[in-house]
Specification:
CATH topology of the largest domain: TIM Barrel
Largest sheet: 9 strands, mixed
CATH class of the largest domain: Alpha Beta
Number of strands: 14
CATH architecture of the largest domain: Alpha-Beta Barrel
Strand content: 5-15%
Shape: globular
Mean pLDDT: 93
Structural class: alpha/beta
Length: 408
């Protein structure tokens, strides 16, 4: 019927109607609608609806580039209208391989949101939590950690104590604010003082270098924090500097973590082969969704590398992470954005949810969602109303004392 309608419209002089290459029989369900919603604080949600009325949600948040991902989702719509929603891997391959230009944050973020939404549909139609479709759980609860300190870390002790009171047993803090390629020793001393103060509260802490530090400062900063035994040092250098990361790995005992700016198994492969990384942190909203991140996690296991998904964003991405963590043997801990400085009090992690209790933290863990699909019930009316005024979030632009740009 869909194909006949397209032919009829074209016969009346309409422009060729973009459509999937595999229109299915009416007895089989098919994708009929793909929508995207830019909502506060900086998130991008994807909603997919099928002919039989099934609905699934995913998250394609790419901080600072939401409009570009919306365009990529619009293009993906042409490929997927009429597609069988149960054929998730076929949809993933079609979106990744048929666009000629592959990979990168924009295209794979679009695929990520669509992939999550299709998994949500499939699990809801089958009446099971998503993790059951991935082989079943290998753990009972998910260890989580939260942010402290913001972009310019101050008052971290009070924030660490507050996180302990919320039930967290681990936190992550930025190593530094803006910093030059070669900066003064006081920046190193300040990091040691802050980290030591947080460790003294009894909470575990990872240190995020955020790609802000360049090689001339990185080695001395890692050496200085070694006695404080952080859980990990994240993104000590940007991912394009593989050789330099290998050199750092040979000079430190601090576990090195990275991955939020890698987007596919092909991006991760040289880091696995180098042996430089101890913990990988793919973002399920950036790195091809549940399907691709499951493959990345399995690759990591073969190199004895731990899996700790990056997720400072919204509830659909977090729920996707929890389901993948539930079935992944080499998973270690999950970042969550509850109370993160980017969100603000009125647009926090659970603000758009009808069932915020699924992310309750107790004894440093959250439960694995047990309702069908991803387990997140969004307030769709609020999402649609908020998306009428889409955000245009941009990260800050930092400059040094001589006016030079610095990494954010």
């Amino acid at each position: 019927m869909i194909e006949k309608l397209c032919q009829h419209m074209e016969g009346l002089g309409a422009a060729p109607v973009p459509r999937c290459d595999c229109f299915v029989d009416e007895a089989v369900d098919a994708i009929v609608k793909i929508e995207s919603f830019l909502v506060l604080p900086r998130w991008l949600f994807v909603r997919i609806e099928t002919r039989q009325g099934a609905v699934g949600w995913g998250e394609a948040t790419l901080e600072g580039h939401g409009e570009a991902v919306v365009g990529a989702i619009d293009a993906a719509r042409d490929r997927l209208l009429g597609h069988d929603p149960m054929r998730i891997e076929d949809a993933w391959q079609k979106l990744h391989r048929l666009g000629f230009y592959r990979g990168g944050p924009v295209l794979l973020s679009a695929i990520s949101g669509i992939d999550q939404a299709l998994w949500d549909i499939k699990a809801r139609k089958l009446g099971v939590p998503l993790y059951e479709l991935l082989g079943g759980r290998v753990r009972d609860r998910i260890l989580v950690y939260a942010w402290i300190g913001g972009d310019t870390p101050q008052d971290v002790v009070a924030q660490a104590e507050a996180r302990k009171a919320q039930g967290f047993g681990a936190v992550k803090m930025n190593a530094t604010g803006d910093i030059g390629w070669l900066d003064c020793w006081s920046k190193v001393d300040e990091l040691v003082e802050r980290l030591g103060s947080v460790r003294a509260t009894g909470i575990n802490v990872g240190v995020d270098f955020h790609g802000r530090v360049h090689k001339p400062m990185a080695r001395q900063m890692l050496q200085a924090i070694e006695p404080l035994r952080p859980l990990f040092a994240e993104e000590v250098l940007l991912g394009e500097h593989l050789t330099a990361i290998e050199q750092l790995a040979s000079h430190t005992v601090v576990p090195l973590a990275m991955g939020e700016r890698l987007y596919s198994r092909w991006d991760y492969r040289p880091f696995f082969e180098s042996g430089a990384i101890d913990i990988i942190q793919p973002d399920l909203a950036h790195a091809g969704g549940i399907s691709e991140c499951r493959r990345i996690a399995a690759m990591a296991e073969t190199y004895d590398v731990a899996f700790a998904p990056h997720c400072p964003i919204g509830p659909l991405a977090l729920a996707s992470c929890l389901h993948l963590a539930a079935v992944t043997p080499n998973f270690v801990m999950q970042e969550m954005s509850l109370g993160i400085h980017y969100n603000g009090p009125s647009t926090d992690l659970v603000s758009l949810m009808k069932n915020p209790e699924i992310f309750d933290v107790k004894d440093g863990c959250v439960d694995i969602p047990q309702t069908p699909g991803l387990g997140v019930e969004l307030d769709e009316d609020v999402v649609r109303e908020m998306a009428r005024h889409p955000h245009s979030w941009r990260n800050p632009a930092w400059r040094g004392p001589q006016g030079e740009l610095r990494e954010w």
